[in-house]
Protein backbone atom coordinates (compact mmCIF):
# COMPACT_ATOMS: atom_id res chain seq x y z
CA UNK A 1 0.00 0.00 0.00
CA UNK A 2 1.44 3.33 -1.10
CA UNK A 3 -1.60 5.58 -1.01
CA UNK A 4 -4.83 5.75 0.95
CA UNK A 5 -7.84 8.01 1.32
CA UNK A 6 -9.48 8.40 4.73
CA UNK A 7 -13.03 9.76 4.60
CA UNK A 8 -14.01 11.00 8.06
CA UNK A 9 -11.37 12.59 10.24
CA UNK A 10 -12.69 11.98 13.73
CA UNK A 11 -10.91 9.93 16.36
CA UNK A 12 -10.72 6.69 14.34
CA UNK A 13 -10.06 8.18 10.90
CA UNK A 14 -7.36 10.54 12.13
CA UNK A 15 -5.72 7.77 14.19
CA UNK A 16 -5.61 5.60 11.06
CA UNK A 17 -4.09 8.49 9.13
CA UNK A 18 -1.42 8.98 11.81
CA UNK A 19 -0.56 5.28 11.84
CA UNK A 20 -0.35 4.97 8.03
CA UNK A 21 1.58 8.21 7.54
CA UNK A 22 4.06 7.14 10.20
CA UNK A 23 4.72 3.98 8.17
CA UNK A 24 5.31 5.70 4.84
CA UNK A 25 1.85 5.64 3.25
CA UNK A 26 0.68 8.84 1.57
CA UNK A 27 -2.70 9.55 3.15
CA UNK A 28 -5.33 11.90 1.73
CA UNK A 29 -7.91 13.19 4.21
CA UNK A 30 -11.51 14.19 3.51
CA UNK A 31 -14.56 15.07 5.58
CA UNK A 32 -17.90 16.82 5.24
CA UNK A 33 -16.53 19.38 7.72
CA UNK A 34 -13.55 21.05 5.95
CA UNK A 35 -11.99 22.13 9.23
CA UNK A 36 -11.46 18.57 10.46
CA UNK A 37 -9.15 17.39 7.63
CA UNK A 38 -7.09 20.56 8.08
CA UNK A 39 -6.79 19.82 11.79
CA UNK A 40 -5.90 16.18 11.12
CA UNK A 41 -3.32 17.22 8.51
CA UNK A 42 -1.76 19.67 10.96
CA UNK A 43 -1.41 16.78 13.42
CA UNK A 44 0.54 14.78 10.83
CA UNK A 45 -2.23 12.40 9.72
CA UNK A 46 -1.79 13.15 6.01
CA UNK A 47 -2.74 15.84 3.54
CA UNK A 48 -6.09 17.47 2.96
CA UNK A 49 -5.31 17.74 -0.76
CA UNK A 50 -7.50 15.45 -2.91
CA UNK A 51 -5.72 12.52 -4.59
CA UNK A 52 -4.80 13.08 -8.21
CA UNK A 53 -5.28 9.41 -9.12
CA UNK A 54 -7.06 6.38 -7.66
CA UNK A 55 -5.56 5.37 -4.31
CA UNK A 56 -4.82 1.84 -3.21
CA UNK A 57 -7.35 1.80 -0.36
CA UNK A 58 -10.22 4.05 0.70
CA UNK A 59 -11.07 3.91 4.41
CA UNK A 60 -14.57 5.13 5.23
CA UNK A 61 -14.74 6.37 8.82
CA UNK A 62 -18.25 7.82 8.95
CA UNK A 63 -21.37 6.99 11.05
CA UNK A 64 -22.95 3.58 10.24
CA UNK A 65 -25.97 5.09 8.52
CA UNK A 66 -23.72 6.90 6.02
CA UNK A 67 -21.32 4.04 5.22
CA UNK A 68 -23.15 2.36 2.32
CA UNK A 69 -23.88 5.61 0.52
CA UNK A 70 -20.29 6.78 0.86
CA UNK A 71 -18.87 3.48 -0.41
CA UNK A 72 -21.29 3.32 -3.35
CA UNK A 73 -20.50 6.88 -4.38
CA UNK A 74 -16.74 6.30 -4.19
CA UNK A 75 -17.00 3.09 -6.18
CA UNK A 76 -18.91 4.87 -8.94
CA UNK A 77 -16.16 7.50 -9.09
CA UNK A 78 -13.38 4.90 -9.09
CA UNK A 79 -11.64 6.53 -6.15
CA UNK A 80 -9.69 3.43 -5.05
CA UNK A 81 -8.69 -0.13 -5.88
CA UNK A 82 -10.44 -1.36 -2.71
CA UNK A 83 -12.72 0.00 0.00
CA UNK A 84 -13.26 -0.68 3.68
CA UNK A 85 -15.19 0.97 6.45
CA UNK A 86 -14.41 1.06 10.16
CA UNK A 87 -17.94 1.36 11.54
CA UNK A 88 -19.02 -0.59 14.59
CA UNK A 89 -21.95 -2.25 12.75
CA UNK A 90 -21.34 -4.48 9.76
CA UNK A 91 -24.45 -6.37 8.59
CA UNK A 92 -26.71 -3.41 7.80
CA UNK A 93 -24.21 -1.36 5.75
CA UNK A 94 -23.27 -4.40 3.66
CA UNK A 95 -26.91 -5.14 2.81
CA UNK A 96 -27.59 -1.48 2.10
CA UNK A 97 -24.60 -1.30 -0.25
CA UNK A 98 -26.07 -4.20 -2.21
CA UNK A 99 -29.41 -2.42 -2.44
CA UNK A 100 -27.64 0.70 -3.77
CA UNK A 101 -25.99 -1.31 -6.53
CA UNK A 102 -22.53 -1.17 -4.99
CA UNK A 103 -19.73 -3.54 -5.97
CA UNK A 104 -19.25 -6.23 -3.30
CA UNK A 105 -15.97 -7.54 -4.72
CA UNK A 106 -13.92 -4.43 -3.89
CA UNK A 107 -15.54 -3.74 -0.50
CA UNK A 108 -14.69 -5.40 2.80
CA UNK A 109 -16.32 -4.20 6.01
CA UNK A 110 -14.05 -3.96 9.04
CA UNK A 111 -14.16 -2.76 12.64
CA UNK A 112 -11.17 -1.88 14.84
CA UNK A 113 -12.08 -2.66 18.46
CA UNK A 114 -10.49 0.47 19.84
CA UNK A 115 -11.66 3.87 20.94
CA UNK A 116 -11.67 6.50 23.65
CA UNK A 117 -14.27 8.49 25.55
CA UNK A 118 -13.10 11.60 23.70
CA UNK A 119 -13.88 12.13 20.03
CA UNK A 120 -12.57 14.25 17.17
CA UNK A 121 -9.16 14.53 15.51
CA UNK A 122 -7.50 16.09 18.56
CA UNK A 123 -8.14 12.89 20.51
CA UNK A 124 -6.40 10.73 17.88
CA UNK A 125 -3.18 8.78 18.47
CA UNK A 126 -1.03 6.73 16.11
CA UNK A 127 -0.93 3.82 18.57
CA UNK A 128 -4.69 3.64 19.18
CA UNK A 129 -4.99 0.23 17.50
CA UNK A 130 -1.78 -1.45 18.65
CA UNK A 131 -2.50 -4.96 19.90
CA UNK A 132 -6.28 -4.48 19.56
CA UNK A 133 -8.60 -6.83 17.64
CA UNK A 134 -9.61 -5.55 14.20
CA UNK A 135 -12.58 -7.47 12.80
CA UNK A 136 -12.76 -8.24 9.08
CA UNK A 137 -16.03 -9.47 7.54
CA UNK A 138 -15.20 -10.85 4.06
CA UNK A 139 -17.77 -12.68 1.99
CA UNK A 140 -17.33 -15.22 -0.84
CA UNK A 141 -17.58 -12.26 -3.23
CA UNK A 142 -14.64 -10.35 -1.73
CA UNK A 143 -11.66 -10.01 -4.08
CA UNK A 144 -8.33 -11.31 -2.83
CA UNK A 145 -6.77 -7.91 -3.59
CA UNK A 146 -9.30 -6.13 -1.36
CA UNK A 147 -8.72 -8.63 1.44
CA UNK A 148 -4.94 -8.27 1.18
CA UNK A 149 -5.09 -4.47 1.24
CA UNK A 150 -7.29 -4.43 4.33
CA UNK A 151 -5.02 -6.98 6.02
CA UNK A 152 -2.12 -4.66 5.22
CA UNK A 153 -4.04 -1.76 6.77
CA UNK A 154 -4.49 -3.79 9.96
CA UNK A 155 -0.80 -4.72 10.00
CA UNK A 156 0.35 -1.12 9.48
CA UNK A 157 -1.87 -0.05 12.38
CA UNK A 158 -0.32 -2.92 14.41
CA UNK A 159 -3.69 -4.42 15.24
CA UNK A 160 -4.70 -8.09 15.30
CA UNK A 161 -7.00 -9.28 12.47
CA UNK A 162 -10.07 -11.30 13.44
CA UNK A 163 -12.32 -12.72 10.70
CA UNK A 164 -16.05 -12.93 11.50
CA UNK A 165 -19.43 -13.09 9.79
CA UNK A 166 -21.00 -9.63 9.74
CA UNK A 167 -24.17 -10.53 11.64
CA UNK A 168 -22.28 -12.57 14.23
CA UNK A 169 -20.05 -9.51 14.72
CA UNK A 170 -23.08 -7.30 15.30
CA UNK A 171 -24.46 -9.62 17.98
CA UNK A 172 -21.02 -9.81 19.60
CA UNK A 173 -20.48 -6.06 19.81
CA UNK A 174 -24.01 -5.63 21.16
CA UNK A 175 -22.86 -7.68 24.17
CA UNK A 176 -19.29 -6.45 24.65
CA UNK A 177 -19.54 -2.81 23.51
CA UNK A 178 -22.98 -1.36 22.80
CA UNK A 179 -24.92 -2.65 25.83
CA UNK A 180 -22.07 -1.73 28.24
CA UNK A 181 -22.26 1.84 26.96
CA UNK A 182 -25.95 2.05 27.80
CA UNK A 183 -25.55 0.33 31.16
CA UNK A 184 -22.75 2.72 32.10
CA UNK A 185 -24.92 5.67 31.08
CA UNK A 186 -27.92 4.32 33.00
CA UNK A 187 -25.93 4.00 36.20
CA UNK A 188 -24.24 7.39 35.77
CA UNK A 189 -27.67 8.95 35.20
CA UNK A 190 -28.56 7.98 38.80
CA UNK A 191 -25.98 10.56 39.90
CA UNK A 192 -27.57 13.50 38.07
CA UNK A 193 -30.11 14.21 40.80
CA UNK A 194 -28.36 12.42 43.66
CA UNK A 195 -27.62 14.18 46.92
CA UNK A 196 -24.24 15.90 46.97
CA UNK A 197 -23.34 13.90 50.06
CA UNK A 198 -23.72 10.69 48.03
CA UNK A 199 -21.78 11.99 45.03
CA UNK A 200 -18.85 12.94 47.26
CA UNK A 201 -18.54 9.30 48.28
CA UNK A 202 -17.89 8.11 44.69
CA UNK A 203 -14.73 6.02 44.60
CA UNK A 204 -12.78 4.05 42.05
CA UNK A 205 -15.57 1.50 41.61
CA UNK A 206 -18.05 4.14 40.50
CA UNK A 207 -15.44 5.77 38.28
CA UNK A 208 -14.73 2.42 36.64
CA UNK A 209 -18.31 1.49 35.82
CA UNK A 210 -19.30 5.00 34.65
CA UNK A 211 -16.21 5.67 32.52
CA UNK A 212 -18.08 4.95 29.28
CA UNK A 213 -20.83 7.40 30.22
CA UNK A 214 -18.48 10.25 29.28
CA UNK A 215 -18.80 9.31 25.58
CA UNK A 216 -20.35 11.56 22.94
CA UNK A 217 -24.16 10.94 22.86
CA UNK A 218 -24.67 11.82 19.19
CA UNK A 219 -21.99 9.37 18.09
CA UNK A 220 -23.55 6.61 20.17
CA UNK A 221 -27.02 7.38 18.89
CA UNK A 222 -25.71 6.69 15.37
CA UNK A 223 -24.17 3.41 16.49
CA UNK A 224 -27.14 2.17 18.53
CA UNK A 225 -29.56 3.19 15.80
CA UNK A 226 -27.71 0.87 13.41
CA UNK A 227 -27.78 -2.14 15.77
CA UNK A 228 -30.91 -1.77 17.91
CA UNK A 229 -32.24 -5.34 17.81
CA UNK A 230 -29.16 -7.18 19.16
CA UNK A 231 -28.62 -4.50 21.82
CA UNK A 232 -32.25 -4.75 22.92
CA UNK A 233 -31.86 -8.55 23.14
CA UNK A 234 -28.89 -8.18 25.51
CA UNK A 235 -30.68 -5.62 27.66
CA UNK A 236 -33.77 -7.84 27.84
CA UNK A 237 -31.64 -10.59 29.37
CA UNK A 238 -30.01 -8.09 31.74
CA UNK A 239 -33.46 -6.84 32.74
CA UNK A 240 -34.52 -10.39 33.60
CA UNK A 241 -31.43 -10.77 35.79
CA UNK A 242 -32.18 -7.42 37.44
CA UNK A 243 -35.76 -8.45 38.20
CA UNK A 244 -34.56 -11.67 39.80
CA UNK A 245 -31.88 -9.84 41.79
CA UNK A 246 -34.40 -7.27 43.00
CA UNK A 247 -36.68 -10.08 44.22
CA UNK A 248 -33.74 -11.65 46.04
CA UNK A 249 -32.80 -8.37 47.70
CA UNK A 250 -36.40 -7.79 48.82
CA UNK A 251 -36.42 -11.30 50.26
CA UNK A 252 -33.42 -10.34 52.42
CA UNK A 253 -35.72 -7.82 54.13
CA UNK A 254 -38.30 -10.46 55.01
CA UNK A 255 -38.99 -11.53 58.58
CA UNK A 256 -39.16 -15.16 57.53
CA UNK A 257 -35.75 -16.83 57.83
CA UNK A 258 -36.39 -19.20 54.92
CA UNK A 259 -37.18 -16.27 52.60
CA UNK A 260 -34.01 -14.49 53.71
CA UNK A 261 -32.02 -17.63 52.94
CA UNK A 262 -33.58 -17.82 49.47
CA UNK A 263 -32.74 -14.17 48.92
CA UNK A 264 -29.13 -14.71 49.96
CA UNK A 265 -28.81 -17.63 47.55
CA UNK A 266 -30.22 -15.52 44.72
CA UNK A 267 -27.79 -12.65 45.32
CA UNK A 268 -24.87 -15.04 45.70
CA UNK A 269 -25.80 -16.76 42.43
CA UNK A 270 -25.60 -13.56 40.39
CA UNK A 271 -22.32 -12.57 42.05
CA UNK A 272 -20.81 -15.98 41.27
CA UNK A 273 -22.06 -15.81 37.68
CA UNK A 274 -20.33 -12.45 37.49
CA UNK A 275 -17.11 -14.01 38.76
CA UNK A 276 -17.34 -16.72 36.10
CA UNK A 277 -18.01 -14.24 33.30
CA UNK A 278 -15.22 -11.91 34.41
CA UNK A 279 -12.75 -14.79 34.29
CA UNK A 280 -13.46 -15.18 30.57
CA UNK A 281 -12.44 -11.60 29.74
CA UNK A 282 -9.03 -11.76 28.01
CA UNK A 283 -6.17 -10.37 30.00
CA UNK A 284 -2.82 -8.96 28.92
CA UNK A 285 -1.90 -9.74 25.29
CA UNK A 286 -5.31 -11.41 24.82
CA UNK A 287 -4.42 -14.33 27.06
CA UNK A 288 -6.42 -15.66 29.99
CA UNK A 289 -6.50 -13.18 32.88
CA UNK A 290 -3.55 -13.59 35.20
CA UNK A 291 -3.72 -13.53 38.97
CA UNK A 292 -1.44 -10.60 39.72
CA UNK A 293 -0.28 -9.41 43.11
CA UNK A 294 -1.20 -5.80 43.86
CA UNK A 295 1.40 -3.57 45.49
CA UNK A 296 -0.16 -0.26 46.54
CA UNK A 297 1.94 2.88 46.96
CA UNK A 298 0.55 6.24 48.20
CA UNK A 299 1.70 9.03 45.88
CA UNK A 300 1.36 12.80 45.92
CA UNK A 301 -0.03 14.76 42.98
CA UNK A 302 3.36 16.05 41.85
CA UNK A 303 5.02 15.78 38.43
CA UNK A 304 7.27 12.76 38.08
CA UNK A 305 5.90 10.64 40.93
CA UNK A 306 4.76 7.77 38.69
CA UNK A 307 7.96 7.97 36.65
CA UNK A 308 10.00 7.56 39.86
CA UNK A 309 8.00 4.49 40.89
CA UNK A 310 8.42 2.87 37.47
CA UNK A 311 12.12 3.69 37.41
CA UNK A 312 12.61 2.18 40.88
CA UNK A 313 10.68 -0.94 39.82
CA UNK A 314 12.85 -1.19 36.69
CA UNK A 315 16.04 -0.95 38.73
CA UNK A 316 14.73 -3.84 40.83
CA UNK A 317 14.19 -5.87 37.64
CA UNK A 318 10.42 -6.05 38.15
CA UNK A 319 7.97 -5.65 35.26
CA UNK A 320 4.79 -3.71 36.07
CA UNK A 321 2.08 -5.76 34.34
CA UNK A 322 -0.70 -3.21 34.91
CA UNK A 323 -1.36 -0.09 36.94
CA UNK A 324 -4.32 1.88 38.19
CA UNK A 325 -4.59 4.97 40.33
CA UNK A 326 -7.21 5.53 43.00
CA UNK A 327 -7.53 9.24 43.71
CA UNK A 328 -8.16 10.52 47.22
CA UNK A 329 -11.32 12.63 47.38
CA UNK A 330 -10.53 16.28 48.11
CA UNK A 331 -6.79 15.68 48.47
CA UNK A 332 -3.76 16.16 46.23
CA UNK A 333 -2.83 12.51 46.62
CA UNK A 334 -3.73 9.05 45.46
CA UNK A 335 -2.89 5.36 45.61
CA UNK A 336 -0.92 3.79 42.77
CA UNK A 337 -1.83 0.12 42.52
CA UNK A 338 0.96 -1.78 40.77
CA UNK A 339 0.04 -5.24 39.45
CA UNK A 340 2.96 -7.66 39.20
CA UNK A 341 3.59 -11.39 38.95
CA UNK A 342 3.18 -12.87 42.45
CA UNK A 343 6.78 -14.11 42.47
CA UNK A 344 8.02 -10.56 41.80
CA UNK A 345 6.01 -8.86 44.54
CA UNK A 346 8.48 -9.40 47.45
CA UNK A 347 11.40 -7.98 45.45
CA UNK A 348 9.34 -4.96 44.39
CA UNK A 349 8.14 -4.27 47.93
CA UNK A 350 11.68 -4.48 49.31
CA UNK A 351 13.10 -2.26 46.55
CA UNK A 352 10.44 0.41 46.93
CA UNK A 353 10.79 0.51 50.70
CA UNK A 354 14.56 0.84 50.39
CA UNK A 355 13.97 3.89 48.20
CA UNK A 356 11.68 5.55 50.71
CA UNK A 357 8.25 4.59 49.40
CA UNK A 358 5.45 3.66 51.81
CA UNK A 359 4.12 0.34 50.51
CA UNK A 360 0.81 -1.37 51.20
CA UNK A 361 0.05 -4.94 50.18
From TrEMBL:
A Gene Ontology biological process noted in the UniProt record is: tyrosine biosynthetic process
Residues in domain ACT? Answer: 294-361
Q: Where is the Prephenate/arogenate dehydrogenase domain?
A: 1-289
Could you state a single Gene Ontology molecular function term?
prephenate dehydrogenase (NADP+) activity
| Listed Pfam families | PDH_C, PDH_N
| Known catalytic reactions | prephenate + NAD(+) = 3-(4-hydroxyphenyl)pyruvate + CO2 + NADH
Per its UniProt entry, which superkingdom is the organism in?
Bacteria
Swiss-Prot/TrEMBL keywords: Amino-acid biosynthesis, Aromatic amino acid biosynthesis, NAD, Oxidoreductase, Tyrosine biosynthesis
EC main class here is oxidoreductase
Q: Which InterPro entries match?
A: 6-PGluconate_DH-like_C_sf (IPR008927), ACT-like_dom_sf (IPR045865), ACT_dom (IPR002912), NAD(P)-bd_dom_sf (IPR036291), PDH_C (IPR046825), PDH_N (IPR046826), Preph/Arog_dehydrog (IPR050812), Prephen_DH (IPR003099)
Recorded metabolic or biological pathway in which this protein acts: Amino-acid biosynthesis; L-tyrosine biosynthesis; (4-hydroxyphenyl)pyruvate from prephenate (NAD(+) route): step 1/1
EC assignment: the record states: 1.3.1.12
Family, according to the entry, reads as follows: Belongs to the prephenate/arogenate dehydrogenase family.
Give the PANTHER family listed for this entry: PREPHENATE DEHYDROGENASE, PREPHENATE DEHYDROGENASE [NADP(+)]
Per its record, how is this protein called by name?
A: Prephenate dehydrogenase
Gene source species? Streptomyces marincola
Amino acid sequence: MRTALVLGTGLIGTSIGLALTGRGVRVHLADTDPDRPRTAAALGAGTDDPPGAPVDLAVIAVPPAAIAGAVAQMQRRGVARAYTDVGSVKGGPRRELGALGGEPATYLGSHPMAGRERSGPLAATADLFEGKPWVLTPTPETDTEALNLVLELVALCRAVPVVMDADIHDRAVALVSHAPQLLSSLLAARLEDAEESAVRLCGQGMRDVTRLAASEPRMWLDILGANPGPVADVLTEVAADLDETIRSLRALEAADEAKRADGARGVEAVLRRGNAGRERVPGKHGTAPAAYETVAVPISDRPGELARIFADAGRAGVNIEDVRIEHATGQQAGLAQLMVEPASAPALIEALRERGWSVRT
